[in-house]
Records
---
Amino acid sequence: MKRILITGALGQIGSELTLRLRDIYGADNVIATDIKKNDSEAAQSGPFETVDVTDGTRMLETAKKYNVDTVMHLAALLSATAEAKPVFAWNLNMGGLMNALETAREVKAQFFTPSSIGAFGPTTPKDLTPQDTIMRPSTMYGVNKVAGELLADYYFHKFGVDTRGLRFPGLISYVALPGGGTTDYAVEIYYEAIKKGKYTSYIDKGTYMDMMYMPDALNAIVDLMEADASRLQHRNSFNVTAMSFAPEEIAASIANYLPGFEISYAVDPDRQKIADSWPNSIDATAAKDEWGFKYEYNLDKMTVDMLEKLRKKL
Ligand code: AKB
């Protein structure tokens, strides 16, 4: 039975991952932590502790208090915010990761942290980007993600910490909004579709990025953490993706189910520049071969579910 400490548990992934893990492993075995408590289900449905990830002492104390055997480190700034505040991003993303890895090492815990398609850069092959390839990102977020992958591999080789990670594409969900990412448009578009029947995209037409629906992302985390270690050739981090589309294609998918929906464009040069430096599509063969990665939702299936859930929510 796992006993899991999650950092950033009230963020976009954490709000749903916490509940999924509580369903699987029992509410008392999943310790949600974040910088501030709120009244969300993740904060209220089991143990919660206030932990600022830049405070390594507090993180370690919390891990020891609950006798955890798994650390899932989610707290991080996303790409657009990191680009706007690079020094803060380095301190939070790298300082937080170092504290979380040290916590895992001290309490001998298994470890997970997400990487991202942001770890790739302008010189990476753009289409069906391989698992092992050129990684020279041009953003602070990407620098953090590549350094983070290397650091997590280092903790595995040097200290034997069972570190594992996924290079997530843009994650789409109706539960918690992302904040400060480049792929956030693909979530906002569904909210605006329901509220106004139209959306102005800050990402230009023709810009392809990988995406995944949150239920598939949660399954991928659970499956990777449960995978037989002897099958893993890679650890930090596996390419995973479920679809790749440009803004006009997600808009067309929405218009199929919400006739009259319209997209227009007011491109944000900062976020467009980040998007242009990322792959069009990545190849998830290593994840499929080494631990059976699979996904259920393609663009249309996701659109149907998002529209149905958001109609109820809004
Ligand atoms: C972002 O846009 O920054 C994230 C990511 C792809 O890592 N959603």
---
Amino acid sequence: MPRHRPRVAEGLALLRLSHVGKRFALPGQDAHFTALHDLNLEVHAGQTLAIVGESGSGKSTALRIALGLEKPSSGSVEFAGIDVTSHSWRAFRPLRRRIQLVQQNPFAALDPRFTVFDSIVEPLVAFGLLKGQALERRARELITQVQLPVQFLDRLPKELSGGQRQRVAIARALALEPEVLLLDEPVSALDVSVQAQVLALLDELQRELGMAYVLVSHDLAVVASMADQVLVLRRGQVVEQGPAVQVLSQPGSSYTRELIAAIPGYSRSVLPVAV
Ligand code: ADP
Ligand code: MG
């Protein structure tokens, strides 16, 4: 049972990118580099859209556009039916509570001088939502949600393992009760042995809280275990997109087939079975 009632009408995409293009000016030249061409995607409550593709294919750029950190050069971005394409930073601010990013590197995401408590509550403080005992109570709730002991609230990042730091980064992302989590290679900086545990946590949180996930990963085994929809990017172009079962079991492009064949210890068993 989702703890929160869906705040948007059933069937309405929480996040939608329509015909999004992104060009970057090349410094000192009269030319542009096109990082994204005509990207279309949408994600719904409780669902996971995976974006896969090699390094430099435009995955993080797509997330930065979704977050309003970059403006698209063409196309539009909608959040829960609201067109935010030309929103200023200030106009975007209330929506920032509803969409949060978990980065690849939990070492970079946490301020080394901040205790776990400080890191987790920072968004709540920044938005002026809670203070005093209510803030402390919420911090205990959040650390428990990511399955760490409450005593960890007093620790510094350097006293935590990589997996524990990523759990703290996830707790921080949950603080504002977002409807959409953008996960940029959330386990690729972690030891293989803890990757599965963090993914299982993300899966559990999604079922409990009903969040939509956009999961960027180059690991097709991870994608196979979590995604409902898959979008394959190559050099900013969508090579393939559709239901995960279909894309992974009957890839339509040789590029996707190569990505699947590159799964470490590749076997058919990691892939969902087409129905
Ligand atoms: P990915 O996350 O798939 O590895 P990125 O979205 O980070 O790829 O980058 C896609 C391409 O866009 C890369 O070639 C990168 O160098 C380029 N790029 C990203 N951000 C900028 C920027 N601010 N200015 C110029 N080029 C950029
Ligand atoms: Mg990236």
